[in-house]
Amino acid sequence: MEKLKLLLLIFFAGFSMNCWAQKTDVSGVVLDDKGMPLPAANVIESGTKNSAMTDFDGRFKLTVSNKNASLLVSFVGFVDQSVKLNGSQNITIRLASTTTNLEQVVVVGYGKGSRKNLTTAVSSVKADDLNNGVIADVGQLLQGKVSGLNVSTSGDPTKASSVVLRGASTLNSSQGPFYVVDGIPGVDISIIAPDDIVTIDVLKDAAATAIYGNRAANGVIMVTTKRGSKDRSQISYSNYFGFEKVSNQLDMMNATQLRDFVTKNNLSFTPENDKGADTDWQKAILRPGYTPSTTQNLSMSGGGEHGNYFASVSYINKEGVLQGNEFSRVIAHLAIEQNAFDDNVKFGLNVTNSNSKYNNVPQRNVVLQQSINHLPVSPITNPNGTYFENFIQTGYFNPVAMMNHADDDTKTNNLVASLTSEVKLPWGFTYNLNLSYQQLNSLHGEYYDSYYQQYNSANFYNNPDPPQTKALVNFGVNGSALRNSYQTSNTIIESFLNWDKAFGNHKLKAVLGYSWQEDVLGDGFQASNTNFPVDNVSYNNLALGNYSSVSGYRVDFGDSKAYQKKRLISYFGRLNYNYKDKYLLQGSIRRDGGSVFGANNQWGYFPSVGGAWRIDKEGFMANQEIFTDLKLRASWGQTGNSSGFNAYTAQFISGSLGTFYYNGQQVGAYGPNQAANPDLNWEKTATANIGLDFTVLKGKLSGSVEVYDKKTTDMIYNYSVNPVLVPVGTIVANGGNMSNKGVEVTLNANVVKTKNFSYATSLNFSHNKNEITKLTNPYFIGGDSIRRVQPDGGGQTGSTLQILKEGKPLGQFFTLQYAGKNAAGISQYVAKDGSLTTNPQIGVDYHYAGSAQPKFMMGWNNNFTYKKFDLNIFFRGVFGNKIFNATRADLFRPSTAMSNNILVDAANESPNDINAYKYSTRFIEDGSYIRLDNMTLGYDFGKVGRYIKKIRIYETVNNLFVITKYNGIDPEVEQGGTAPGVDSNNFYPKTTTFLFGMNVVF
């Protein structure tokens, strides 16, 4: 019996010890770097699905498998931390904030680096700091968030934002930055779902971007998307529902106001126009009530000891405020990483597919123009239900009828796939081989039904965005259809070797690589037809048309240069040297060969060098308590531009030159229509940058100051030349220079942080001065200036608004100088010789009249938290820029008030003033504004029940108000391209959005 008792005692003791070895209860608290509790932080036992969520006081309890288990602790905005228990049953864990952590990882070209050791100008924006809203455009996500980044957006959901970094660098139409997504260069940024983004790094100076060579002149934006974690599995769901309304419209006269004006000035409507109506034509083209929009995202992530996965599906739908205008997109994303061979080899598979549908407004800009020109005394429909039209009046078309008798749709499917491999080698080497393939398929269709044949092709002009000029449009007879299908593909192979080695106080990091890229554009076809027996098939069956019976009709087979093949081959290298984390040096060089340039200049070199001094690491800083980080940086680099022109730019091309009469018949004529330029060279942009990074007051205040000088040389432009030297009369050549000089400041402050309340704010502002410093070419016969941007409003033939001029910025206004009215009440202008005239000469009596370039930009972000509530308020401002309000000029025509509507504030104008509407300084306005861009109020429920780790609900208001003196619809006029700051009868109304959203983590 005693032996049995002894055996039972040993058994139960062993059992108890075994139970302790298998399971133990752990409790603790999770704090931030200031010692404040973090509610709803995630605590998970590494290698398992066993997890807990901290309560309001940051405390948690968790039963783990053994006393030596490891915990992984995470919280949004803080660095994940792994903690080994080592037998402890009560622990305190402090997480470091990513916003102030000097070890924050920044993505740069072909690698990553610690922010504390950067020698270049890089701005990073985390996912939580991006703009909220039903947004499918990365440019809009960044609007106002990065100093020096000028983003202008339209109210049209089918139009992408214009993004310009540190001022325009070229006269080519392409001024947007180069995008790199998860290491894949040149990705179409629309393929990325906003909810999948982790961080966006904006590489500003050439020392940071030179590693991308000829594609980096306009800056580089690196986007990093989510990956799974091997330590935890997670399912997340987010959705947002928004309702939009037009925030502002032009103040046009209603029927009563216009009748009073016409009667007062002894004018009269024609019977064809005056039907006794009172129509608000701006309202007539809008959807009734509030316009809905939604975004939904479902993601799953997880992993194991040797790999991880992340998968998501996103759906975005946004209806435009104009009738029939809608955008929808479905994005599927899969990212898998797998380690092998004792984790010495890592394979990655990343596939994203985006399917988009754009329902455009047919002849959108004409519809917008007609909605403000149409008389309120004209009705939308006749008594019999047909649309009202007055075809006696030239250029007078019913905008509602135009929208409802036409289709304009585009479908795109965008696939990006990459296969990556990384091999760890001895002596600190790693080898990467990346393969990527991108394919964009687009299907576009337009149909203008038989109603449109009433619109005389002799006076129906389109209304393109500046700087394009209007042209006549022919809609055929009995319906006109156009269909095209094109494919663009991009194949990239990149191979590079990294070396990371420390020798005592010396650290070296190097990368050496090779890149091969081939682009095939416009692989497809286009066709058009007319004379259809019915309208209800729209553009879906071109075979039903019969163009051969319509005299003079020509099938539109599209651009003869649509198909292109381009190739780029590059060699690149970069070396970083670090001495005691105190003195930092970086140098890089890239050699690019591109097929788009002249045969004599297809290769270019793009070097860079940068250095930094971490002053806070010096001995004399050891005992001070002001700075926790103080770094001085300086860099110089050169990049190139290979966008904005095509594979045939440098080639000789001949084509049709019309017909000539020979031997009794018209014979086709062919000859040169583009001159060859074997010496066409790279545009080069060199940037010198000096920066200062600092953190003071124990992390409460941090920021950076940047001063830069960016110069573009050998700027490519299509110059007019002497036809004796070049028979075509134009040639694409290097000839111009452009300069951008500026200052950028970013400040971040943790103003208040208590147990229940916190307030943090960040402010960024920037100043840039743009100047064309040279605009000549040995062949150029136009002197040092080119007059351009010609909206061609009524009575404005030949009038231009801007000029490209040496010593002036891009967007320099050049027009008549308004000098009030003379004694007879006629508008007068300052002539070239300084005298006053009522009969100014176009182009001769012109004066410089301000610039569209903003002098100052600002973004101000404010974050408040109170217990489980959070409030974000974001203001954005642009100052010192001018806008040419050509829309206002065209609506300031009192002498034609009986045939076209006018603005309310034109009521005091006299019809006898035949000059009132002329494009002049009278219609150049201050474009400065401050906008409450985003306000979000949220509530975090934390953990709810067994399966829900986190629920957060919130409400967002976008564009709540704008403070401006501008008289147009909105001062956020297009700032990209080569005709910035022109409002020309084409402004799609901006909206105020009310958004309700929810984020759930399972």
From TrEMBL:
SUPFAM superfamilies: Carboxypeptidase regulatory domain-like, Porins. It holds the Pfam family TonB_dep_Rec_b-barrel. It is a multi-pass membrane protein. Residues 116-220 form the TonB-dependent receptor plug domain. InterPro entries: Beta-barrel_TonB, Beta-barrel_TonB_sf, CarboxyPept-like_regulatory, Plug_dom, Plug_dom_sf, TonB-dep_OMP_SusC/RagA, TonB-dep_OMP_SusC/RagA_CS, TonB-dep_rcpt-like. Keywords: Cell outer membrane, Membrane, Signal, TonB box, Transmembrane, Transmembrane beta strand, Transport. The keyword Signal applies. Residues 1-21 form the signal peptide. One of its GO terms (cellular component) is cell outer membrane. It is found in: Cell outer membrane. Residues 395-960 form the TonB-dependent receptor-like beta-barrel domain. Gene3D superfamilies: Carboxypeptidase-like, regulatory domain, TonB-dependent receptor, beta-barrel domain, TonB-dependent receptor, plug domain. Belongs to the TonB-dependent receptor family. This is Iron complex outermembrane recepter protein.
